[in-house]
Amino acid sequence: MLIDFKNVNIRHLDGESALKNVNFHVAEGEFVYLIGRVGAGKSSLLKTIYFEMDIESAVKAVVLDQDITELNRKDIPELRRQMGIIFQDFQLLGDRTVYRNLYFVLKATGWRDKERIDNRIDEVLRQVGMEDKKERMPHELSGGEQQRIAIARALLNSPKLIVADEPTGNLDPETADAIIQLLREISQRGTAVVLTTHNRHLLDQYPGIVYRCEEDGLTEVTNDYNQLVSDEEFKE
Length: 236
Fold this sequence. Notes:
6-stranded mixed β-sheet
């Protein structure tokens, strides 16, 4: 189990409760949606998974075999190398090419051999269909292309888990479909994907495990969300 949360409580820095008694589980290769209104706690849950936000209490809280209730901050960089993180606003470095964006990440995570680095960059760019964009600057790319580069960046260290916070939020519907299809293909190759979305259409077209955040809690609605989730819950 890559993520195993049992009765986890999450509180914002201001002391306000974000989520209570969360039970959330993700295994290898699973494709998991988090849905719910803005402010319902989706991003807070993701931040606990990639160690940006502490949990308040838990019966069990394990991410990548690490009990995060006992996490030492110095261990976070090593754990993050085992996951990829994708954001709505891409967060590419605007002052360098696609190649240099990816090169920077590999060097920062301990890669030293130039040939291995070049081969890995070529490999992940092929995976996302961006091999011809290696020498482009981010501003020369469309939003969908930038998100594909962000996905390539997330894949660099062959992660067990990808966490994506509204990865299609700034994209048109056709491009959003292509991005979700790409993430589904990645999950089918064994990397678990957890993403937040407000786009109900994507859930219908690319089925996965579905959890809904509401009223400070989290409920799995995989089997019945079509009946239980109203369109209102997907509005910004």
